[in-house]
Amino acid sequence: MATVNGKILLKNASFNDQHLIDKCEERGGYSAIRKALTMSPPEIVEEVKKAGLRGRGGGGFPTGQKWGFIPKDTDKPIYLICNADESEPGTFKDRLLMERDPHLVIEGIMIAARAIKAEWACIYIRGEYGYPYVRLQKAINECYERGYLGKGIFGSDHNLDIVVHRGAGAYVCGEETALLESLEGNKGQPRLKPPYYPAVMGLHNCPTVVNNVETYAAIPYIIEAGSEAYCKLGTERSKGTKLVCVSGHIQKPGVYEIEFGYPLLKLLMEDCGGTFPGRKLKAVIPGGSSVAVLRAEELEGVTLDYESLQAAGSMLGSAGIIVMDDSTDMIEAIVNLMHFYAHESCGQCTPCREGGHWIAKVFERIARGEGMPGDLELIEDICSQINGRTICLFGEALAVPAQSFIRKFRDEFEARIREGISSRKVSSFPIFQASL
Ligand code: SF4
Fold first, then answer.
1. In the chain, what are the domains?
2. Distance from the CA of 57 to the center of ligand 1, in angstroms?
């Protein structure tokens, strides 16, 4: 684990006993929920709105605003879900939070539940996360033993139960409506929006808030220190701090907590130690594998926040930064990614279900040196038939990297089509193992 300026989320994560409730409380754990219980639910929502906290799962939607969509006069139960189905390639920040500081996540859930008046919460964790699951469940058990969960938490009039539900390992269950389908015992397939906006028609058609692990983990600080203190961190439009995951051809990979606005190249070349000796930075995927790749020369002046990365032609996404040096074969890299996305399509929409496999096959034949003139245009055409024509954003998650790899590294693709396999460069570091 690594921190650039671990002020909030990783403040205590380096302590090896932080997962134990006694140690966590010695370091200030569960003081924010005590404070929140003296506030009214609308006051908590207002504080989170003023803090400008945006969803950390990838969408970046304002959290307080999302909570505000819950109907005020409903007679249905209100549910709260913590999305811990962290499946985006290159992203492993939630795992670290759940393993190292599970009580921070639980405390954030408690405060959010108070804000939206939910008495039942569920942490939906990806099936592959065995160790984080054990840590979370132990932490929840400790809370029940102390009366921090159950009837009248912390001696208040608020009841709250939290359960942990393990998924079965589908990428698309990280999409909030697919997650809800899965929780209801159905196939994890996304629902149409509208009408199925979770705030109104969520779990079992009841009002539901779904937020990401990191989003909840930021809430105790906002309540404890106040929105004003939180707003002092970050930039004008991207407030607070963010966990970023750095992986690939980099000397010091890991999870770093940065203030929004931190220079991307400074993080990679100084804090993360840069590329390996003798190698040059070639490309970076800055926000998990479903966002557009950027060439090294495009990174100059780019900062880690929603606006700067968008202006550079990519996205912050889940902040999974995948680094590629000059030994990387970009064609093999995209073949690998397309295999992943084709495999993970839930199959409901024809453009996504068929298009993903089609794109993967065309990229594969190019990688083998058997590409044909017109193949790149064919892939562009398939992508244009996917974008905007599917039930969920998975379609774009598949098409955007395919298009960006071609647009940014067209010369390499054209050389492989023209010259065959002889133009292939072998990757020195197997982050991408194309199944050719
Ligand atoms: Fe399923 Fe793909 Fe359609 Fe999303 S876009 S609903 S993953 S088929």
1. 2-231 (3.40.50.11540), 241-325 (3.10.20.600), 330-432 (1.20.1440.230)
2. 18
